[in-house]
């Protein structure tokens, strides 16, 4: 059903002229993505950083045209600036035959960075940043050179979790030297602004900041750059998933049904932009009482494993609710760095091993068939 709505949206957009490119907005390649879910349409409109202001009327026209399509409850169009050739190939080509095989995201285009992976969640507070930090450290413990980019521009928590503060250096005033936290190269909007500065980042501004952090930070050489995504599956997340050269995504959720429901939306989002899902992680899976040693499945342990099985995705592991993990994260002393051989660190090492396997597997397999819902 959504595909029909998507096609109708594309037809409606084909009626909008693109004065700058002299054709309609679809034919001119201006529309780099259309996604419809539960009657909500999200459309990506290509521009350049210099032309963003001038493209605003076109964005509004696209939004209005999409909103007028029957079956669309709400439409939002976002401007996205110039992308690299890998994403250009990976994005949904307008008018492409449904079900046609399309190339998967090509090799990473960040010079000197072998793979960029996203850690994402369908909703906030499920422990995504905690996982991103400890996964990055566990990958590093496997001898890999690892960086961590805090793309959670709304609630950057990586500086606190790695115990970092102060603005990163920029020796030439252009390139940014990442901070080093526990051996990881790290970058976060939280390092660029005071903690009490209200973060009113919207649409293209978020993209601008992230593009800068991604492309103007001296990451190289890295084996893996871990991206801590903003929670949720809205425009910002969709835009990042389309524009960053992702080798794959790890989805984290708690075992609760509602969190899993949100996780499913996360899965759908990455699938839509043809980013391989490296696997699911269940966080806060169970709680072991520090006093009696008794184990409680507070949120109903096992939901993510079942979901992964059902979807044919790798289940990367379960992380228990552990008081030390919380206290150490909040103190800037991540458990995998401070107590790498502890019981609390063990799940992260196992997840890191699974992630490495999944990346290798995802990039060995032939291109997937894009299945649209
Ligand atoms: N396995 C765990 N055991 C105990 N506490 C945890 C665990 N995972 C995360 N936490 C704690 O839960 C809180 C939320 O975690 P975190 O900030 O990583 O979540 P998030 O999904 O990134 O949140 P947000 O969406 O708000 O950025 C933090 O206080 C963190 O220390």
From TrEMBL:
Keyword tRNA-binding: no
Amino acids binding ATP: 122-129
Top-level division of the source organism's lineage: Bacteria
UniProt keywords, alphabetically: ATP-binding, Hydrolase, Iron, Iron-sulfur, Metal-binding, Nucleotide-binding
Compositional bias ranges of the Low complexity kind: 88-104
Keyword ATP-binding: yes
Region (Disordered): 80-107
Occurrences of domain MIP18 family-like (ranges): 6-76
Family listed: Belongs to the Mrp/NBP35 ATP-binding proteins family.
Assembly and interaction partners: Homodimer.
PANTHER family the record matches: IRON-SULFUR PROTEIN NUBPL
Function noted in UniProt: Binds and transfers iron-sulfur (Fe-S) clusters to target apoproteins. Can hydrolyze ATP.
Protein name (database record): Iron-sulfur cluster carrier protein
């Amino acid at each position: 059903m959504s595909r029909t709505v998507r096609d109708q949206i594309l037809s409606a957009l084909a009626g909008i002229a693109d004065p700058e490119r002299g054709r309609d907005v679809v034919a001119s390649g201006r529309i780099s993505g259309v996604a419809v879910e539960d009657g909500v349409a999200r459309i990506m409109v290509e521009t350049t950083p210099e032309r963003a202001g001038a493209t605003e009327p076109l964005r509004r026209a696209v939004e209005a045209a999409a909103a007028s399509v029957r079956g669309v409850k709400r439409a939002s169009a976002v401007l996205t600036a110039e992308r690299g050739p890998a994403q250009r190939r990976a994005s949904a080509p307008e008018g492409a035959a449904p079900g046609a095989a399309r190339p998967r995201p090509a090799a990473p285009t960040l010079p000197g960075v072998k793979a960029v992976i996203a850690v994402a969640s369908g909703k906030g507070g499920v422990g995504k940043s905690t996982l991103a930090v400890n996964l990055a450290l566990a990958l590093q413990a496997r001898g890999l050179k690892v960086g961590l980019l805090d793309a959670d521009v709304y609630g950057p928590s990586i500086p606190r979790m790695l115990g970092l503060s102060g603005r990163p250096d920029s020796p030439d005033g252009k390139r940014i030297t990442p901070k080093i936290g526990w051996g990881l190269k790290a970058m976060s909007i939280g390092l660029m602004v005071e903690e009490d500065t209200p973060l009113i980042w919207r649409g293209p501004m978020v993209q601008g900041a992230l593009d800068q952090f991604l492309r103007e930070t001296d990451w190289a050489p890295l084996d893996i750059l871990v991206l801590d995504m903003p929670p949720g599956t809205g425009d910002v997340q969709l835009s990042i998933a389309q524009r960053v050269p992702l080798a794959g995504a790890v989805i984290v959720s708690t075992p609760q049904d509602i969190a899993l429901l949100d996780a499913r939306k996360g899965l759908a989002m990455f699938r839509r932009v043809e980013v391989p899902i490296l696997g699911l992680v269940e966080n806060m899976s169970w709680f072991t009482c520090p006093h009696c040693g008794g184990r409680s499945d507070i949120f109903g342990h096992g939901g993510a494993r079942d979901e992964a099985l059902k979807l044919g995705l790798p289940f990367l592991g379960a992380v228990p609710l552990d008081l030390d993990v919380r206290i150490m994260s909040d103190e800037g002393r991540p458990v995998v760095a401070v107590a790498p051989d502890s019981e609390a660190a063990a799940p992260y090492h196992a997840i890191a091993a699974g992630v490495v396997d999944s990346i290798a597997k995802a990039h060995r397999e032939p291109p997937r068939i894009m299945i649209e819902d």
